[in-house]
Design a protein that fits this description.
Blueprint (H helix, E strand, L loop, with lengths): L1 H12 L9 E6 L3 E8 L2 E10 L4 E10 L4 H15 L1
Antiparallel strand pairs: 1-2, 2-3, 3-4
Length: 85
């Protein structure tokens, strides 16, 4: 599944006619990292957390369209991801 996420991210951001996306990152003492990418029609949230049982990072991508309230949707996603930890 990770290969599909990477392929979509590459397709969105590495197109020759697209500008370099703006990236904002938040990190929490190695527990998780949240990055926000600008995209056409919305934003992409990448949530990366460490899974100590498997000893590797788990990546989740979320799409928030321009029609949705970014703050409300981001709060829902962050709450969901913290509950997963």
């Amino acid at each position: 599944m990770r290969w599909l996420k990477e392929k979509i991210k590459d397709w969105l951001f590495n197109s020759s006619d697209q500008p370099t996306p703006e990236v904002r990152s938040i990190s929490s003492d190695g527990l998780f990292t949240l990055e926000v990418y600008s995209a056409n029609g919305g934003k992409i949230l990448e949530f990366r957390r460490n899974d100590p049982k498997l000893d590797h990072y788990v990546y989740d991508l979320y799409l928030i369209s321009d029609e949705q309230d970014f703050n409300v949707e981001a709060a829902k996603i962050i709450s969901l991801e913290i509950m997963k930890s």
